[in-house]
Amino acid sequence: MENAGEEYVPRVFALVQEGWEDERPEVVAYGLTLPGGQAATVGADGRGHGLWNSARSAARRLRSDLVWFGDEGG
């Protein structure tokens, strides 16, 4: 942790891929940020998981849009 005096609060996100023409966007994974800045993801179908350098890194590698959950925005 960077600031030992501060409590770490994880952030939850989804990775979403845009659909083709008339298709709806699809959530491909859900994720959680980790204390060191890394992120962990699990596929939306419950299969597969990943450990990434960051949430943005996961989005780039999976060619997805990063959508943050919660009040803080992105």
Provide structural commentary:
The chain is mainly beta. It has one domain (1-17, 28-74). It contains 1 helix and 5 strands. It has one helix spanning 55-61; strands spanning 12-17, 26-33, 39-43, 49-52, 65-68. Strands 4-3-2-1-5 form a 5-stranded antiparallel beta sheet, with helices on one face. The longest helix has 7 residues, at 55-61. The protein starts with 11 loop residues before the first strand and ends in a 6-residue tail after the last strand. The model has no long low-confidence stretch (mean pLDDT 89).
Helix content range of the residues, please? under 10%
Give the oligomer, counting copies of the same chain as homo and different chains as hetero: single chain
Number of domains: 1
User: Could you say which structural class the secondary elements and strand pairing correspond to?
Assistant: mainly beta
Strand content: 35-45%
Low-confidence stretches: none
Helix and strand succession?
EEEEHE
User: How many β-strands, per DSSP?
Assistant: 5
Coarse morphology: elongated
Give the spatial strand order of the biggest sheet.
4-3-2-1-5
Compute the CA-based radius of gyration.
13 Å
